[in-house]
Amino acid sequence: MLNLDTHILLHAVAGKLTAREVRLLRSDRWSISGIVLWEIAKLAQLKRISIDLEDSEVSRVLNSVYIWPITVEIARASVTLDLHVDPADELIAATSLVHNVPLLTRDKKLLASRTVPLA
To answer: 2-111 in CATH: which number?
Structure first.
């Protein structure tokens, strides 16, 4: 299983993945942190993305993605990471750490982590 950050999920919906990302995503089941749903809604509200949670393709993809709930353990882990990014990214990274699920991201700050399992 892979844990996708918000932007990778959006790139997958839009068909804008790199060859490496396509290869990884074809070979494994997808998951996201629950905070990704909020982040998509917020980005749409702020008009930073043109799709939202009501988009048929987003709905189709979300129906096949496992959604990790934000738990006390994830909240605790989010404040012990070896990186400081926005809170949503910290929860996404902590989800990967707690569940030992590789994170697929393009975010340079997240990629610099030495503790978060990365894809």
So the answer is: 3.40.50.1010
Half-sphere exposure of 50 (CA within 13 A, CB side): 3
* 119 in Cβ contact with 104 (< 8 Å): yes
Half-sphere exposure of 98 (CA within 13 A, CB side): 20
Per-residue pLDDT of the chain (119 residues; tens, 9 = 90+): 999 999 999 999 999 999 999 999 999 999 999 999 999 999 999 999 999 999 999 999 999 999 999 999 999 999 999 998 999 999 999 999 999 999 999 999 999 999 999 99
Tell me the whole-structure pTM to 2 decimals.
0.95
CA distance 42 to 13: 17
Structure-token match 């290869």, residue found: 23
Tell me if 76 sits within 8 A of 95, measured CB to CB.
no
Per-domain residue ranges for the chain?
2-111
Which uninterrupted H or E stretch holds 66?
A: strand 66-68
